[in-house]
Amino acid sequence: xxxxxxxxxxxxxxxxxxxxxxxxxxxxxxxxxxxxxxxxxxxxxxxxxxxxxxxxxxxxxxxxxxxxxxxxxxxxxxxxxxxxxxxxxxxxxxxxxxxxxxxxxxxxxxxxxxxxxxxxxxxxxxxxxxxxxxxxxxxxxxxxxxxxxxxxxxxxxxxxxxxxxxxxx
Length: 169
What we know:
- By secondary structure, the protein is α+β, with helices and mostly antiparallel strands.
- The protein has helices at about 30-50, 135-150, 160-169; strands spanning about 10-15, 50-65, 70-80, 85-95, 105-115.
- About 30% of the residues lie in helices and about 30% in strands.
- It has a 5-stranded antiparallel β-sheet with strand order 1-3-4-5-2.
- It is globular, with a radius of gyration of 17 Å.
- The chain starts with 10 loop residues before the first strand and ends with a helix.
């Protein structure tokens, strides 16, 4: 199976925030943003694996900045790390200033997808080879996040969480 870079899975979706997608404060509904992020992340995972993918978990979402009505919103997703059958996808959300065109990061999220065959059974995915410093940082942190998730779910023992233990040694 060919190793792939995060850039090969890069997915960019740009859209406008419409009135029907906003709350009483005229900001984008959080659920609408989650759906947009899920679609972009799904495409990124599919590009990486070239398989059917399903959302396994939403590991982290940070709503750091409101996204006002009329904003141009860009959702960028890349596979940050692949494990046996799962892929962590890091999503950055940007809003564009109406007058200057400058982009500012508004939100971010981390989703996990699993590649499956036509019967829904998990199947192996290619490894990820990060290239940029940001990609390398996200790649390294993905293993710690996975170990923490497994530890909290009771699927591994604390002694097996080597990457987490290394943070405290």
